[in-house]
């Protein structure tokens, strides 16, 4: 098994970001992530996918889209589309039609920032996802860095404070987003969770103050999606692109907040009578299943079954739980950082059937 760090959901000058693809790749090289996935609004940009070379390592840059109905006010129902073979922005007025077209084109679809509240101090409207009648999407972005920021900036001065002290902003995914994901899982759906930075590197000016909110490199050191691959990246674009998207489609991944401490090395597995499963996999309940988590550092660990916490471990790196109960099992881990308990790891479920 081979772990890679992916930072996804970011914007360039082709929509409402400020950086170029080359600048994003350079920031990713500095932050030691292996893959970045750019998702500009309603435009599938061509010509920039591929490996970007650094002095000691390379980064794979992939390109998707963030699609929404631009004629809708407010512009809710944003969908991240990865790996699609064609431009689909013209279908964004009908979310289900769009999701079906993404599947038909060989792509993945993730509901972007499902809970994204208004920030009146900055004239930002609520752009949460509303159409929960949709089906057959790949997953949901449970932790979005920009959406969380909007929950803690009731005034311009709060915005200035977090612009200068960005490490204080992230706490955990918005509770309502986690609750919605758990509701979907409890109803028997397979829904892959990802974490996105929503990086724009916007330039803020207030009088004599000027600040970038937040630089791409900062985002790449914070909320990432770690994928577990069956083989290491080869350096060949087509094969590696396929391998990355297949891992995300299966849910062989977890969300790691890497700023407090690196989450590399986290594993959540289930051992049955005759097989081993990892995040995103199914395993039979018959004969019993041993769930085990291994963390790279000590943390407060919560094991959830169908959205309910059933076990908690304090200051542990390894935890084990035996079950015969069907359902979805996922794990959350928390660490203290800059004076507060913060979300550190959020695994995808293992489905005990």
Describe the structure.
This protein has 353 residues and is an alpha+beta fold. It folds into two domains: 2-257, Alpha-Beta Barrel (TIM Barrel), CATH 3.20.20.140; 267-352, Immunoglobulin-like. 19% of the residues lie in helices and 38% in strands. It is built from seven helices and 20 strands. It has helices at residues 21-31, 95-104, 145-150, 156-164, 175-186, 216-220, 237-250, and strands spanning 2-8, 35-41, 50-53, 58-67, 79-82, 108-111, 139-144, 192-196, 202-206, 209-213, 223-229, 253-257, 267-271, 276-278, 282-283, 289-305, 308-323, 327-337, 340-347, 350-352. Strand 9 and strand 10 form a beta hairpin. The longest helix is centred in the last third of the chain and has 14 residues, at 237-250. It starts with a strand and ends with a strand.
Keywords:
353 residues, alpha+beta, Immunoglobulin-like, 2 domains, two-stranded antiparallel ribbon, 7 helices, 20 strands
Write the layout of secondary structure elements.
Layout lengths: L1 E7 L12 H11 L3 E7 L8 E4 L4 E10 L11 E4 L12 H10 L3 E4 L27 E6 H6 L5 H9 L10 H12 L5 E5 L5 E5 L2 E5 L2 H5 L2 E7 L7 H14 L2 E5 L9 E5 L4 E3 L3 E2 L5 E17 L2 E16 L3 E11 L2 E8 L2 E3 L1
Parallel strand pairs: 1-2, 2-4, 6-7, 7-8, 15-20
Antiparallel strand pairs: 1-11, 3-4, 4-5, 5-6, 9-10, 11-12, 12-19, 13-14, 13-16, 16-17, 16-18, 18-19, 18-20
């Amino acid at each position: 098994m081979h772990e890679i760090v992916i930072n996804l959901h970011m914007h360039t000058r082709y929509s409402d970001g400020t950086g170029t693809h080359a600048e994003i790749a350079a920031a990713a090289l500095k932050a030691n992530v292996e893959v970045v996935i750019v998702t500009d609004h309603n435009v599938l940009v061509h010509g920039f996918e591929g490996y970007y070379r650094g002095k000691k390592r390379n980064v794979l840059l992939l390109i998707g889209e963030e699609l929404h109905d631009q004629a809708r006010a407010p512009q809710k129902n944003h969908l991240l589309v990865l790996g699609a073979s064609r431009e689909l922005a013209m279908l964004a007025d009908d979310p289900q039609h769009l999701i079906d077209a993404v599947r038909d084109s060989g792509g993945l679809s993730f509901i972007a920032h499902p809970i994204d509240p208004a920030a009146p101090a900055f004239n930002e409207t609520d752009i949460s996802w509303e159409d929960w009648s949709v089906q057959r999407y790949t997953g949901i972005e449970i932790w979005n860095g920009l959406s969380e920021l909007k929950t803690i900036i009731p005034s311009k001065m709060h915005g200035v404070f977090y612009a200068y002290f960005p490490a204080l902003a992230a706490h955990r995914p918005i509770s309502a987003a986690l609750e919605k994901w758990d509701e979907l899982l409890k109803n028997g759906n397979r829904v892959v969770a990802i974490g996105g930075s929503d990086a724009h590197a916007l330039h803020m000016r207030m009088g004599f103050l000027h600040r970038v909110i937040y630089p791409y490199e900062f985002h790449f050191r914070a909320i990432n999606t770690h994928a577990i691959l069956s083989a290491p990246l080869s350096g060949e674009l087509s094969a590696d692109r396929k391998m990355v998207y297949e891992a995300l489609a299966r849910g062989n991944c977890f969300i790691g907040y890497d700023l407090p401490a690196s989450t590399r090395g986290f594993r959540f597995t289930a051992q049955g009578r005759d097989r081993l499963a990892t995040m995103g996999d199914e395993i039979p309940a018959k004969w019993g299943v041993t769930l085990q988590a291994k963390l790279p550092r000590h943390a407060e660990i919560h094991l959830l079954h169908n959205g309910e916490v059933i076990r908690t471990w304090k200051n542990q790196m390894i935890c084990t739980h035996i079950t015969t109960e069907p359902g979805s099992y996922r794990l959350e881990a928390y660490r203290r950082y800059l004076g507060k308990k913060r979300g550190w790891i959020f695994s995808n479920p293992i489905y005990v059937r």
